[in-house]
Amino acid sequence: MISREHKRFLTVLGLLALLGVIISFLKPPVDSGTATTFGGQTMGTYYIVTLAGVDVPDEETDRLHRLVEAELRDINQAMSTYIPDSEISRFNRFRETTPFPISPAFRTVMERAFDLYEDLDGYFDPTLSPLINLWGFGHTGTPEEDPPFVEITLALDRVGLHRMQLTDEGLVKDSPDMELNLSAIAKGFAADQVADLLFNEGFVNVFVEIGGDLAVRGKNPAGGPWRIGIQVPERDGPEDILMVIGLEAGGMATSGDYRIFREHPEGFSHHILNPRTGRPAVSTLTSVTVIAKDCMTADAISTGLFVMGTEAGLDWVNRRQGVEALFIDRVDGEFVRSASDGFDRFVLESL
User: Which CATH number does the domain 91-173 belong to among 3.40.50.300, 1.10.3980.10, 3.30.1360.20, 3.30.700.30?
Assistant: First the structure.
């Protein structure tokens, strides 16, 4: 089934012939000024790249596009559970408790994952693959109803990153049936990698978005900070902008219950699971946006904070440097915003 983000990207591609621009769904139209933009599909969603202040010739744009596509293919081949022979799929099928050799990119992601798993007290956990599949948000298909309690309990016995070790020889799992799912960190890593690739090609003003995860460098086409819209977290409503953020360096990611979910006779289930209960996280929180030094970090932290909830999440952010967050709760049919102590310095417009 085509995701909502994928459908949106296809709509944008249809508009390109008429408008001659690409518009990100999580930000206002690109500011006036010289810019080169291209995009495509990756990781089951869309990606968009904008290089500000330069009018890159078509031949050079095509070369850059090919470089980006190759980088994203390599990352997908390493970390996509939807590719049977990917590195992560082979690790998940590996039934030994000896080291499984991993690539440098995979190691970079896992090193950060171990750090954030500990720092977030387990609320971010990339070993949730059995539960993600059980709830129908993975590569195994969608069940007709919520899984029974006994199956959730059995899946929880296979969860916990503390049951894996990263050694010089590779990645080791304590139990042969443990699996990884890096969907809460891999998109952010990919956005960072693409931004670094283009920066190393000599472009200092770079905007990269992969399905709502953002990595930016420098200025926008108008010479100011990149303008990024935070969407009203309405599941079936219009894609209105709630707030505009200005960012010149770092990454930003949003986790919420309004993008990937399914409705069924028993109610509503979203894809962000609580590692302690094995069920979708339950609170009034509907969206959390994180700004951090890089998108990989923002991606993983936004997932962990969503599971924590607003009160504990705000306390966590305010005790750390280099991370800011905006929490949006749905209370009595209204959206209530709560921001970390330093978040306001990034706000350009509050609508």
Answer: 1.10.3980.10
